[in-house]
Every structure is written in C-alpha cells, then in structure tokens.
Amino acid sequence: MSPAPRHGRARYDVIVVGAGLSGSLVAKELGDKGWRVLVLEAGTGTLGSWPGHLGALDTYYAALAKVPNSPYRPNAAAPSPDVLDLTGLPSGGYRSHGYFLQQGPLPYGSDYLRAGGGTVLHWLGLTPRMHPEDFRTRRTYGYGRDWPIGYDDLEPHYRAAERALGVAGDAAEQADAIGLPFPDGYVYPMRAIPRSYVDDVFASRLDGAAVRETPGAPATTLRVVGVPHARNGTPDPRYDGGRGYRPVGAAGLPNYGERCVGNASCVPICPVQAKYTPLKTQASWDRRRVRLLTQAVVSRVLADGTGRALGVEYLEYEDPAAPAPTTRTAEADIVVLAAHAIENARLLLVSGLGNHSDQVGRNLMDHPVLLGWGLLDHPVGPFRGPASTAGLECFRTGPARRSRSPFRIEISNWGWSWPEGSPGSDVARLLGMGADPAQPRGKGLFGPRLRAALGREIGRQVSVQFLMEQEAEERNRVTVDRRRPDRLGIPRPVLTYDLSDRVKSGMAAAKAVSDQIFRLLDAEDRTAYGPGPLSPGWFRFEGRDFTFNGAGHGGGTHVMGDAPGTSVVDSWQRCWDHPNLYAVGCGSMPSMGTSNPSLTMAALALRSSERIHRDLTAAHRPAAVGPQEGRP
Amino acid sequence: MTPKTSTSARSLDDFLTASAALTGFGAFDLHGTGMAGLYHRTALEQVGGPAVGRFLDALDAAGGDPDGITDETARDIARAIAHMWYLGVWPQLAAPVHTALGRERANTAFTVSPEAYTEGLVWRTFDGHPAGAKPPGFGTWADPPPGAPAVPRAGERTSGLPGPREAGP
C-alpha cells in the first residue's frame, strides 16, 4: 500500500522531482534509511514494464532517424528536446523548432528525455571518473570555475556509484594510463568489457606514436586505453574484499538479465538491458517508503517567506497525447530537484527561488563534440559491440589547458553512424539518391555491384569523437519565457549558447590530432565540415571550418560553489538560499572536465543523500527542553 | 524479349526475381527475410500496380539488368525497391517521378515495419548485424571480421612496443 493518500494534501519526508539517474539514487538511499519519499516524474512510467520496453524497441526499429530519443514516444504534457529540432541553414546559422527556444550564436545541440528512467535510458554507458585536476582548473590553469570539493572528497562516492551502477573496467589501467588515484587494490565490480577489434587496430598503429598539436608544440605519445562501462560483463571475484559482485538484471522482467551481447544499440536502447538504467535502481526501491507518481509535472516549488521550501505544486494528467491536468500540491521537509540541469534551472526560475546569486540558469555547459572519420585499408567490423570501448586519454590533462580546452578521444565502434548517418546514407548515395528529392538523381548501382560496394565501403568505416571540455561561462544560459509556455502553461526554456575561443582552439588542436591519427592509421581521411541542413553546429574559426555536435551532457545551470553570492548550491547540492531545497545533477557541476558526466553525477547524488539523511535526522530529533548540560 | 502485359497480374515471383536483380541477393535469401510479401504490397500501394508493372516490363526489356533501365520513372522505382530491401525504408521518390505518377499521398520516407529494419540487407554486406537486433554475443566484437587480418589483442603487446614515432607531414 502507498504510505499516503493518493490525492489531496500529502506530506512526505522528501519529495524528489524527477525519476532519472540522480532522483532514483536519492530515493533509493533515503527510502532504505526509512524516510517516506515521493518521487514525481513528469513523463510516463511505461518504460519500466517489459511490454513498455519492448514497445520502445519496436518504436526504435521503426524510426527513420535512429537518434537518442527515437525509441521514446513524444509526450505533449512533458515535451523533450530532440536533436532533430535543429536544422542548419545553407550558408551557416541554424533554426530551432522544438521545445527549446534557442537564440544563441550557436545551437545547444543536446537532447534529454522526460520519462521515468530519464535521459540515462539512452546513454552510452561510459563511466570514466573525472581527473583530479578537473576540479581545480581556475587555481591550476587560470580558467573556468573550481569545485568547492576535490577528487579526494568524491572518491568514496565514486566507488559507491560504481557499485550502484555496476561498472565493468580495469582500475589498474585507469590508474596507469590516466593517473587516476584509487585505493590500493581497488577493482571494479566487473572485469573490463573486452575492447573491440577496431580498438586493437588503432592500438597496433597508434600506440607509441607521437603527435603534435602544432608543428612546434611538444609531442604527445598516443596510447589506446580501455574505458569503464556501466554494463554487465563478467563479475570480478576480487571485488569488495573478495565478496564479489552480483550483476543486476533487466527491469520489468523477473529473472532475466544478460551480459552485453553486442546489440550495438546502447544509444538509444539496450534490448537486453545489460546497460545500467535508473529503472534498475527503481526496481530495488523499498516501495513501502518510496512512492512513484508518474505523469505528474512539477510546475512550481512552494516556499514560505523565510525561504523554507514547503513542497511543490504539480500538474497530474492522464493522457500524454491530450493532457487535461489537475493541479495538486505535496509537502515535505526536504525537496530535491533532480529533473535535469535545464529543467532544474527552469523550475527554480519559474518559482523565483534560489537565485540570490543571479547564477541560476547560467554556466550552461555540454561536451561539444568534433568528429573525424575515414576509411581503413581493410575491413574492421564496424557496428559491433558497445559504441565505444576504448579511447585516447592523453589530451585530457596538462599545461596545454592554459590556452585551449582539453579533450578526450573516443574511438567509435559504429562506423560513420554519427558523422554521416551510416549505413542508411551509404545505401542512398550508392543508389544515386541525394537528401533532396528535388535534385536530379544519379544512375545508381544495382545488384551484385551495389552489394559489393556497400560491403567494401561500410566494412572499412572508422571514426573518432573528440569530447571537448567546455568551461563555465555566465553568458551561456537558460532563461524562461512566460509568453511562450508549454502545453501545461509552464514557461519553456530559452537557451543562449556559444562556444568560447578556448573551446574553438581546442577543436583546432583536436583536428590537427585527428589529421595525424588518420595518417598513422593509413586511413583515407573523409572528415569534412561545411554548412548545410544536417550541420546546425557549423562555424568558422581562424579561417577554417568546423562542425560540432552535442554530447547530451548538459550541466552547470545551478552551479556549485563555496559562497552564496557567486553560486547556487553548496558542495552538498543544497541551495544556499533555501536550506531544505536541493538541486542535484550535472547542473551542480562547476566544470565537467572531459569525462562523460553520469558517474560523477551519481557520485554527487549519493553524497547528497548522506547529507539529506543527516538533515532529516536532525529535524526529527525530539526537541530538547531546557539546557542539555549535565544530562546523561 | 517481349514485355509481358503489365498491371496487376504480375506476381510475387516476378517481384522477387526483379528484387534479386536489384539487390544482388538471391531469391532464397530474400524469401528468408520474411519481408517479400510486405514489400511487394508496399510497392503496389506506393506507386500503384500499373507503375510496378511498367517497371517490371522495363527490367525485362533491359534483359534483367537494372543498369539498362532508361525510363527515369522505372529507374526511380528500382531505386526505391532496392532501398526498401537494404534498409526496410520506403524512400522519397524523386520529385518529378512523384509528380509524374500522380500519387495521391505524401512523398515521405517511412520504415515499412519494425521487422523491416531488422531484416535490412545492408548489414549483411559487411558481415554485420542490425544495430539493436540479432546480437552476436559477448565479446564477439573483439574478433576480426571476415577478410580482416589478426592484430595483437590488448595485453598481448607486453613488449616490443614501437618507440616514439612521428606522424607524417
């Protein structure tokens, strides 16, 4: 039974807004400690059932463009941004025609998903830790924002997150190749996911080679390094002092779970759920204490005159296609916003809360991604295995950060799927069909010659992805426009986004490295950037063309800091202005380094859960009457 | 060769024979996808029986070689049918062909069915599997694909690493 009445004024210890990665972890931790938790999810909960999962898989199969949100149905009550919302213009610039209102010089190119389970339903599943120097770039290199805590403060929570998400990796290799500090003898819950044949080919031609970002720059020695994944592999019996690790199976289907079987569709959906999703955490919630209410869009955080959060107002709806919402409220001692960086900022702005510093919505960051692609001189077996199983980590750290953004290089296992839309685009091209049906078509290849040409070309496709660090900049921001509400009347997010010269210089360095990588590979470099409908992220810098994509790694919008005048939350992700209002997730990060941020977000959520537990324990301690001195 | 009489009398077998010529996959493989009937119906629905018949006649007239099709409408139908077999997606037709056929439907691309995607032939051209279906098993991505040389696995390069090298100019 639910711990509280379904309707009317309901009171909880904690309200969590959003059933994604952070919210699911916070609810798990607090429910297990005995607190009554209400989780309000704006989207539907259909993906948590096995039929719902299979339905999403079919939707993905049937989607024309297999973009990250393609398996997940649109929801008029809780609209999600989509990468297909952006179109490039013929001579540069872009048009945005979706949920976001975009007005920046360059487009914010990432999506997220408003549904039970959240955006992590379509993540790739990579879980690299941030590097210690990523937490203090201002002090060390003179740019960006420093964290109020460091790697050492977060390290135990990284381990807790690696347990909660079920990480497979090689800690010794991470320590040796990247310089990440681990406790002595630490192993991940599962052994490393095998790296791909593509990785081995790259390693055989790149390991030990030296490249230079510019002709006079110091040489950097390349090394292909495996990456940790939150993906079921082979448990390591040495884990946890020899107690080992039991992998977590699929959500919604009892007694079903597999290791990664190589479906090669982590983004946007893992058919066997070998990849971690928050639905797995939700399956372990103590449902006597954690109550999930889906199709409940929080429209406002309620606070009293002293700044204390009282609860939330939310809009409950039945039909996602034609929502007719009912307004309700819920109250709690503590409110936790875990709705995504942009949605958290939107809620704070709409509620008029937490913004004494004028930093809410500012410092919007992503990992702008530059792609490089080419053809190897023999088949490599693309479109097999997880999207990426190894990378080049040697440009993530070091003094070059003083002048340009650092970057992490992912070796893609999926051919030209990201840069060129392969293999669909290859078929169309060889058949003589351009993207524009009004243009005259080529003769086209047919029969055995078509079949052979496709095999020859697709089978040799390789690509690399350069994930650039983007430093916090106040001008990159989320605001809301009350004249442009969504279907439920909540103001939509307005984004102003651009890349700094520091990021663009990083991309120039990355492109120079990309050129050398393809030469070392003896590959035919097919990388080309230019304006066009599929290149909304095109720009010119220092006389050269670049096109960037979003990584889906939005952050910074309720930035963490060490003083209330200059930041939104403290190191516990607690709003400076409201001691019982937390805003958790990537929005709290003052910098994201070059690591895919979900693991760090999970570590932060687990750390905040400890603090929330202490807050609640203190609040519920029986009030002492009179002086306590001298009592036993 | 005398062209057969066109229109609706043309059978699934004729469609499959033509599909084999268009795709380079034999009728046995095409039947094996389970998609032949659906694709035949889709082609008939999208451009109409007479146009499919004219395409089949044009292919016959070219001696069964799609390269010999000169009529641009028939050729674009050939592209569309090949595209459907390879990807499971009926594509947009060339705008003039769409107009010439007088189609009373939008000229939009669509995936014929969820299974059509997973039965796409394109994956087989490079010994792959459709992304999201027919997974080959844990760790198989580490093996060389057919026709590729073996390279050292991670951990096998314990010694003899090449020293620092410079990338070419």
Automatic annotation (TrEMBL), chain A:
Its cofactor is FAD. GO terms for molecular function: flavin adenine dinucleotide binding; oxidoreductase activity, acting on CH-OH group of donors. Residues 287-369 form the Glucose-methanol-choline oxidoreductase N-terminal domain. Keywords: FAD, Flavoprotein, Oxidoreductase. SUPFAM superfamilies: FAD/NAD(P)-binding domain (SSF51905). Belongs to the GMC oxidoreductase family. PANTHER family: PYRANOSE 2-OXIDASE. This is GMC family oxidoreductase. It comes from Streptomyces klenkii. The lineage of its organism: Bacteria, Bacillati, Actinomycetota, Actinomycetes, Kitasatosporales.
TrEMBL record, chain B:
Residues 133-169 are annotated as: Disordered. It comes from the Bacteria. This is Uncharacterized protein.
